[in-house]
Structures are given as structure tokens and as C-alpha cells.
Write a structure and sequence with these properties.
With 169 residues, the chain is an all-beta fold. It has one helix and 13 strands; from the N terminus they run βββββββββββββα. Strands 8-9-10-11-12-13 form a six-stranded antiparallel β-sheet, with no helix packed on it. A four-stranded antiparallel β-sheet has the order 4-5-6-7, with no helix packed on it. A three-stranded antiparallel β-sheet has the order 1-2-3, with no helix packed on it. About 4% of the residues have low confidence.
């Protein structure tokens, strides 16, 4: 990508400084775990934003970071909860996120909506595989800061296609 530059400093700090060039070079952030950068529309305004993924955890999932394009600069979005593998879906106008944990863990898929450059949870589904004898799939949505459970099923198959096919985010 021609307009993103990562400068790494080694030593005690071990920080990477991320610069973006729109009309001028500017510092986005200094972090220690950037791995992947993409220029893509993150909020449906048809203007490329910066989307970045952090260092993957033990399950291979890295947190997502978003910098929205404003005038000649970029503003970091405060990310709610645990947003991983974020991608904006222009057809449904939601930001999709999913997290895949280990074989006996909790997986989730969530959709967020934008309001005034802030993300708010719209709906989600999780598959809990921590019990030895059953798998529980739960659909939920947010009302303000409260998570409301909509329904539960004792299966994992319904999770795979809930909201969108998992391996086609």
C-alpha cells in the first residue's frame, strides 16, 4: 500500500509507528502488535478508511482497529468489546465481526451499526462448546448497554449459517 508506512523501532520499546499519507504524512498511532493493514470503506461513506488487525491470539484471531477518514486526517474508532476480523458489509450496512476460539470454546459472530462515527452492537450469535455433552447456540441483541438473549438452541449447526455463512464473511 503506497499510502501506509510502518516504522519499527527495536530495543526496550519494541514499538511500531504507523503513518498514513493522504495529503500529508501523519502519525496514526504507536503500537506493538500491528500485523495487517487494509485501505477499505469501514462505514459506508465510500471513502477508504484504514483497517488494521493486531497480533493473533492463541486461536489465530487478532483484534480489529479502525481509523475513519475525516477531511485530511484519520480518527481512531473506539472499538466496543472484542471486535475481530472486522469487515463492512455495504448491502446490510453493518460491520461484521467474528471470533473463533478453540475446539471447546465459545465462538461468536456479531454485527455492529454506525452512529456518529461510533460502533454499536446490533445483534450477535454465539456457539458455546464448553460443556462436554452439548453445544448451545444463543442469539442476542443490544438494547443500550444491555445484552438481551433472543433464543437458544441445543445445536451447533444453526450457528454456521446464522446472519452470514461463517467462512464467507
Amino acid at each position: 500500500m503506497d499510502n501506509i508506512c510502518v516504522v519499527s523501532l527495536t530495543g526496550n520499546n519494541n514499538l511500531s509507528y504507523v503513518f498514513i499519507h493522504e495529503q500529508r504524512w501523519q502519525l496514526l498511532d504507536s503500537v506493538d502488535d500491528w500485523l495487517d493493514f487494509r485501505l477499505e470503506d469501514a462505514n459506508g461513506d465510500h471513502i477508504p478508511d484504514v483497517m488494521a488487525s493486531g497480533h493473533p491470539d492463541i486461536h489465530g484471531m487478532g483484534s480489529s482497529y479502525i481509523y475513519l477518514h475525516h477531511a485530511d486526517s484519520f480518527v481512531r474508532v473506539s472499538m466496543p468489546g472484542r471486535v475481530c476480523a472486522a469487515k463492512y458489509d455495504s448491502a446490510s450496512q453493518v460491520l461484521r465481526s467474528y471470533y473463533v476460539s478453540g475446539a471447546r470454546g465459545v465462538h461468536n459472530k456479531e454485527e455492529y451499526r454506525w452512529k456518529d462515527d461510533h460502533l454499536f452492537l446490533f445483534r450477535g450469535v454465539e456457539m458455546d462448546m464448553t460443556r462436554e455433552t452439548e453445544i448451545i447456540t444463543t442469539w442476542y441483541h443490544a438494547v443500550g448497554n444491555t445484552i438481551v438473549n433472543d433464543r437458544r438452541r441445543r445445536d451447533g449447526e444453526s450457528y454456521d449459517t446464522a446472519f452470514w455463512p461463517l467462512y464467507n464473511p
